[in-house]
Amino acid sequence: MTAKLPGEDERIKVVVGNLRKKEKEDGGVGQKDVPFEIHVTSDCTLPELWRVLEEEHGYSPPDSLIQTRDDRVRRRSDLKSVFHPYTELEIVSDKSAADETHIYINEALQAASNRDQDVVFNIEYDGKGQNSLIIDDALQLVFHRTVRMPDDDRLHSLPASVGTFPLYNTEDYADRLPENILEKGGLFLPMWQREALWIELSRPKSSYTSRRSSQTYAIRVYVGQINAVSGKNMMEERANRQEQDYLVFPGQPWIDGICVTTGVVRQFVAMPLGSGYTVEGQKTGEEKHGGLQIEIIPAYRKKAQKWRAAAEEEEEALQDPRLYLDESKTPAELGLEAGSKVWVYPSPPTYRKPVEVGDLYWVREESGLGVANLEAFYDDYRRSASTFMGSRSRAMGDSHDLARPTWFNGTLAGSGVNPGGAPSLNQQCTAAATASLSLSDAYLGDPDSPRMAPPPSKARKGRARPMGHPRNSSKPESSPRQVLNVKAMGLAAGGKLVQDIIADRNPPNTWNVDAARQINIHILDPASCESVTHIVPPPIPMSAYEAVLSKLPFFVVEEQIDNRLEGGDFDNVKSVSKMDETKGLVSEPSLDPNQPTICSSLFDLAIINFATCAYEQQHQLWKALFQVLHVALVAMQRFLEWLGLLRL
């Protein structure tokens, strides 16, 4: 009989022959004794058996023990594979009955394995107001300030970053923000009127040591609840979602605007709500949301668990991967019926532990006592060689005195704030449920984008605070609120940029829509943001003309003709310049970054581009004066060169 013993506490008689007593004090070799008998429990491990022979009975520890019945060699360090405890799930035909112990017959096995998958949002601070949004330590979103390209129906290359937008947590300013922003929660950032932005998607540095460093995501970007890829309204989109309306990461490195046609986007440009310029206003006839809404859908974690049909007992052959069920299929697709059961193991399903006495070859005597017969083996040649090498090693220094590497397993930073997220619209349709989430502390990031010009300075560590939750009216206020009249912004359509939206080549069952989470990014005008945060916002951005003068780089990206999406439903959306024409405003002229020309209406261009209030006009006036001075100096230089009075 070689099977496991009925009980772990059953005792077995172990008979070991050829054992040697430890060496005598005079250096003589230990004398061989008659076979030694010892009674131990079946769960006694081999290291414990060795210890008992040496410490309690004075025997020299053998190099190995040989089973006399089959000559199998057993060593103190032998390990065996043991199955983790499994969870038994019953297959049900009622979807509402699916829970921790039941699986729906048409639910993919990997979907059940990922029921606890969550999306965690963090903010990284670099100490200079240049922040980024971190998701699961696997995805980083950076909101870049950039040059607004001319809206002249020409295709322009992608402009570089001229800095990043600061991100603020709505919960930190709950006493000053209006109720409609607090109800949605999330983040807010300042943008000047007619300022442009683009969003970078990358891996954060913290992902290098994260278990989710290879995590894949589908990302939906909405501008005022209008999908930036498909052009459909968020609420209407849910009912008939058949085409790709999301970005895939890794794959999509950035997005600069709404996808108007194949390989072309119109730049994200900030405009006030109520002006009629925004994409939301032109698509829906009203402007009540504004800002950005970003939905994050993680891919299913592959091989998170191992599945098999329930059996009478576990088998060693179960370690063969071919015996496990395909996790991408449903019980129905696997031919399993309602009422049958499946076993779920962690991945991997087995772990290693020391061999026990009960695992040795043993027989049961007539008395009912199990007996294991073993022979001790001593490798005298190896022992003498080891002793010689040991003395030589000690002459050079004890090997055990060498320092061992120490692995840091502590926590660098963290506040212990519970992470969380708001259910996406795939789960609930209420505004409060789709907008609230929490932040936990994050590692510091150092955005490293190929489009950064110049490269950002090295970041410093910072701390993140919990992000805004839905307001609880029953909760008493700790201090009186001083709600400010802030001006919210939306995103309009700017100039045309060459940019592909990469097609999704993943299988349709890749995305865990039940784990999707959504975050709101509110946009405030700089004056409102300063009144809320008491922090001076970034200065007015440079114009396209200034970008050319300062030699700001523009990027030509290789087009992926066979791997990109067609344009969304934006045919009726007018650009900012077209909207200007309908209102009788002068728009900016055409500009070729490779062949810049001096603008004849410098003052008008500067004021039309950005000036909407006295706060901005003051900045624009100084800006225009410096531009005129620059033109005058260039003209004077040319005149002196013509006279031969100035050598370059």
UniProtKB/TrEMBL annotation:
<feature type="compositionally biased region" description="Polar residues">
    <location>
        <begin position="471"/>
        <end position="481"/>
    </location>
</feature>
<protein>
    <submittedName>
        <fullName>Uncharacterized protein</fullName>
    </submittedName>
</protein>
<feature type="region of interest" description="Disordered">
    <location>
        <begin position="443"/>
        <end position="481"/>
    </location>
</feature>
<feature type="compositionally biased region" description="Basic residues">
    <location>
        <begin position="458"/>
        <end position="468"/>
    </location>
</feature>
